[in-house]
Amino acid sequence: xRAVAGAVPAAAAPSPxxxxxxxxxxxxxxxxxxxxxxxxxxxxxGGAFRQQDGSRRGPGPGRAGRRIARPCLKACRWPLAGGIxxxxxxxxxxxxxxxxxxxxxxxxxxxxxxxxxxxxxxxxGLVYTVGCVLPVIAAGAMADQxxxxxxxxxxxxxxxxxxxxxxxxxxASEAERIRAALSAGDxxxxxxxxxxxCGRDPGLLGEAELVRAVIESVAENTSDGAVGPxxxxxxxxxxxxxAYRAVNTLDSMVxxxxxxxxxxxxxxxxxxxxxxxxxxxLTGLLTVACAPLAGGSPAAAWRAMRTYGPxxxxxxxxxxxxxxxxxxxxxxxxxxxYGGVAEHRPCLGGGxxxxxxxxxxxxxxxxxxxxxxxxxxxxxxxxxx
Length: 385
Known about the structure:
Layout: H1 37-44, E1 49-50, E2 56-57, H2 63-94, H3 102-117, H4 122-146, H5 151-165, H6 168-183, H7 187-193, H8 207-254, H9 266-275, H10 277-290, H11 298-308, H12 317-328, E3 335-338, E4 341-344, H13 357-384
């Protein structure tokens, strides 16, 4: 609008060339309607405002308003949901990229930064954590902004990022590799493969301890490697996907209670606890729902999660591991060594000791939870985007 309603018209009579008398000539200033900011915003959005006499001016919320809203819905919402689903599907079909994996590149950069700034200090660890995570958030936010009006580019970026930051396929592959080695009686091969799943010291672990370590890792990493990324992607878009994986990677690098990282890794570990609070509990609930697919009982999984989950020293891992234990009808927990430091954890679940065959059941349960979480994330992104 070039002329704002409420402007004072010229007092002089119009010339004959105008062909008609100027509208409003001779009226007082108080007789002109005053339009507030809210009404102007309504007009700009295609709405109408009510005059002093009760009549309405403006096009009103008709077909034009619907024509504006529908393209926005299609352009803004479906690429994120579709990208999340496509990324998880690509991970399931193709696995992790063999070369130039973005998470591996980030890990090398984070290790180089650690070599420069490390000190046995919480403050130094906090600076390190912020310095590693903020650039990832900034890059994700820039990509998100540049692709917001380009739905197909947004779909491709989201799918590629989700593929890079989810790891359900590699989790199942590594767990299956250890199961095959144990089934063949090859303990050295199983011990050699365990570090690909968790940071425990495998050197002195027997078959029972290895089985327990694998199932606990599958349970926890179902949250870290599948549910967490898609959930943060649903609520945070590209920055959420990338930032979550950066935080989780830092925790896997420095979030230990060893002599070297007890103080320096404190900030990374606490930040990881915060961002995984929701995903861990969603993982537990989905494990309860999917328990029958692994031959388990939802009621037993629910009781185990509620009873044993809070006893775990981790505020998040305990919910996942206890729910898996209840769903599989087994008992997890006990003493584990990380970086030469023994950690004594309470028993999770009231079932039998796990066997090698239970690894396959845990993998099947993890896949079911991943599929369910992906569907929930896609629907959530359509609401919050």
